[in-house]
Every structure is written in structure tokens, then in C-alpha cells.
Design goal:
With 338 residues, the chain is of the alpha/beta class. It has two domains: 63 residues, Alpha-Beta Plaits (2-Layer Sandwich); 252 residues, Aldolase class I (TIM Barrel, Alpha-Beta Barrel). Helices cover 33% and strands 18% of the residues. It contains eleven helices and 14 strands. The protein has an eight-stranded parallel beta barrel, surrounded by five helices. A four-stranded antiparallel sheet has the order 2-3-1-4. Helix 3 packs parallel to helix 4 and helix 3 packs parallel to helix 11. The two termini are 42 Å apart. 43% of the residues are buried. Bound molecules: phosphoenolpyruvate (PEP) and manganese (II) ion. Phosphoenolpyruvate (PEP) binds next to loops.
Length: 338
Amino acid sequence: MIVAMQEGAEEALIQQVIDHLVRMGFEVHRSTGARMTVLGAVGSGIEFDIRNLELLPGVQEVHRISSPYKLAGRSFRPEGTIVRLPNNIAVGGNEIIVMAGPCSVESREQILSTAESVAKAGAKVLRGGAFKPRSSPYSFQGHGEEALKLLREAGEKYKLLVISEVMEISQIPLMLPYVDILQVGARNMQNFNLLRELGKIRKPVLLKRGIAATLEELLLSAEYIMAGGNYEVILCERGIRTFETYTRNTMDISAIPIIHKLSHLPMTADPSHGTGRRDKVAPMARASIAAGADALLIEVHCNPDKALSDGAQSLFPEQFAKLMDELRIIAPAVGRTI
Ligand code: PEP
Ligand code: MN
């Protein structure tokens, strides 16, 4: 940690801060320049709020250098994490994994038809919501367990793994027999009780970035799951809320290389929620692969105009197939396969 003292801070104040840091267990390295003094504090493992140091008389600013997420941080596994799934599928390896399907599972015909087209185009995982977090309580809320059964049936028929969103703790045991990956949605990224429970299971969790969450907050949420012993965490950028209103969210492509630098966990991009508009999904998917995404999560619907949720951002099956062809050209340019 670096503690910069105010310009011209008196020696007595500097000494007070040094004593304070030593009491906290730090070894203090002092650097005195012509105008100001900077203290380098090394070593204490204890948890503390840096604002308490910023409040000490004579202190200008305080910067933490070591990361607050020990398990999710890159140094925990410098070589990177590969999340292994059934059917020899791995997220975080050389192959980019595409997860695709409707926002919600609506009917058997809908999920079977969509599964068939995404499988044919090269997706490896079928997505589909059974429990839907909707902004309005009057919007379609999902078909629950019935939807999970249909999702599994469609996955088995077309040799696709399945992913679906878990919204609360009580749904975990219900979902485990049906899904290969549990998705934590943007609205639940900081539902710490849910994250802790997901730390107790041994199945991969795809954790989406909250709509107003910093990347540090995303990694701290991953830390909650990992602290329970479940290291199979896949992160996901799905757009954040900004002042821009043209798109539903602003797709933060820079989150991909930033997460790869800060963390060893694989990173997914969801350009469907990231833009909220069908015509912007393919460009952002292409950009995400170019930026190094390990996986994509894309909404595809056999009849988007009739979708019960997120139709406007869902690709038609033909659009998805065309996008996959484009991605097969881009992936090798960044040393990946798809
Ligand atoms: C979804 O994947 O359909 C979804 C609700 O995503 P998010 O949590 O990113 O809004
Ligand atoms: Mn959706």
C-alpha cells in the first residue's frame, strides 16, 4: 500500500502515520522527496478500510496495491483456469465455446427448434431461462421446472450442454439435476447469500457482471463463490448502464482484456444483453472474439417476433449461422479455434 503525505506535512504528522501503520503490522518504507513524503507499507495481512487511513491528519491519498480478491486474482493461477464440462468441452482453453438459445424456454416446439438450429451452426451449450428476472412483475416470469425439463430434453436430443439462470438459493437443488452450468444474472451479482451457497456446490457457475458493477466488484463476487471451494467460475460481461440511451446497455469490450489481466478465470461476452438490439449483436460478438473472449452467450429464437422475452435482441437462426461462419474466420486470427 502507498500512503502519500500532503505537501509540506510536518515531521510529527509523518511519524504519527508511520507509528499507526507499524501498529497495524506493516513494515514501512519511507521515501522523502523535495516537496513530499511517500510511505510504502508492506506486509500486513489484516483487512481494513483504507478510508480510515485517508482520514489521518497529514495524509493526502492512499492506494492499495495488492488485490482484495486472492482466489480470483491472476496470481492465484498465473497459467489461467480451464473450466471443464461434460462432453469434453472446456471453457478457457484454446477453443471458444458458444452458448446460444432463447432468453426463456417457452414451449417444447420453441426450444427443440431453436436447439436444432444452434447445434447445427456450431453452438456447444444451449441457453434458456426457466426462472426469469423481469423488471416488471407483470412480465413473463418463466415456466420453472417444466422449462428445465424441456431444456434438458432439447440438450440431450441435439448433444448440447445446458445453462440456465438461478435466481435464489431454494432453486439450486431443483436445478442441479437438469443443468451443466448455473448462471447468476446481472441483478444477482451481489446477492452474497446466493453466491455463498453456490460456493458449496461442485458445478460450474457463470457469473454475470451487474449493470452498475465495477470489475473489482465482479471479481469480489467471484471470490465469494471460490471462497466456498467452488473454483469453477466463468465470468461474463453483459453490458453496463451508462448515459447512452441508443442501446439497452453499453457493451464494455475492454472488460475482456482487463479481466484476463486481473484474473485467471475464463471470460464470456454476452452481446445480446450488452446491446439489446439484434442488429448490434453480431458486430459486438465479432469484437469480443477479437478482444480475447473465451466464450459467447447469445440469444437466438426460432421466431423472435413472437418471443415472450428479449425478442428484439434475439437473432434469427439464419443470422446466428452467418455469425458463426464469421467467427470461424476471426478466431484463428487471435490464435483460437471455434
Ligand atoms: C438473461 O441471460 O436472459 C438475463 C436475464 O441476463 P442478465 O442477467 O445479463 O440481464
Ligand atoms: Mn434475456
